[in-house]
Amino acid sequence: MQIDLTNKTALITGATGQLGRVMARTLAKCGANIAIHYRSNEAQALELQDEIHSFGSRAVIVQADVTNLESILGMKAVIEENLGTVDIVVANAVVQYQWTSILEQAPEDYASQFDSCVMQSVYLAKAFAPAMMEQKWGRFVGINTECVMQNFPTQSAYIAGKRGMDGVYRVLAKEIGEHQITVNQVAPGWTISERDRANKTEHSESYEQTVPLKRRGTDQEIANAVAFLASDLASFITGAYVPVSGGNVMPSI
């Protein structure tokens, strides 16, 4: 048994980011063709495109503002022209900002999180769900966070955006499920990335002691969960929020 995404096309938003690039490589190694979305880092997108070509998969880089529907529709046209219909959408992009207390957080930071978490999810569904519905197969995988279950100080804008995203994804799962489209979320814990390895910051004793597995997860472990949910091995899983956090958060029943 293996994850086989041969002849599937996957769009990964924020594919040049620390987690996004590992997701792109992983899905490509499973056989998928990859649409590499970026906002501003074209050099990283081109480098990633070359990597994916070396795996034997096709790839195209696409620039877009995921908080703007017209920009997403323009991205869709480029992908379809180069790779065909998108079968798998991984919503990974999010606006970065400085975290602080609710009393100090700028109102525009809440707006940016709403736009990049909630509205991105809505726009991606509007753009790519219709073709999935027609072909009776599709996958949406949203990247959420363990933070939505922790509610720690300074996280309010991020949590508000990601909780909104959760609501959209759960409703979407019910609205398009009859077309054999699954809609799920992967919620990473504090994940070791390429940046951590380069900076030798992989370990945090205080954080690791809160995790039942007593370690931080890796970017590859997040990508593995995404690949599973994108595959036919997860064909009867939808509407799920799946923490990949070593047990640091545990949804209750």
Automatic annotation (TrEMBL):
GO term, biological process aspect, one: bile acid metabolic process
Annotated family: Belongs to the short-chain dehydrogenases/reductases (SDR) family.
InterPro entries the UniProt entry points to: NAD(P)-bd_dom_sf (IPR036291), SDR_fam (IPR002347)
Native organism taxonomy: Bacteria, Bacillati, Bacillota, Bacilli, Bacillales
Gene Ontology terms, MF aspect: oxidoreductase activity
Name of the featured protein: SDR family oxidoreductase
Entry keyword annotation includes ATP-binding: no
Domain of life of the native organism: Bacteria
Organism whose genome encodes this protein: Cohnella herbarum
Sorted UniProt keywords: Oxidoreductase
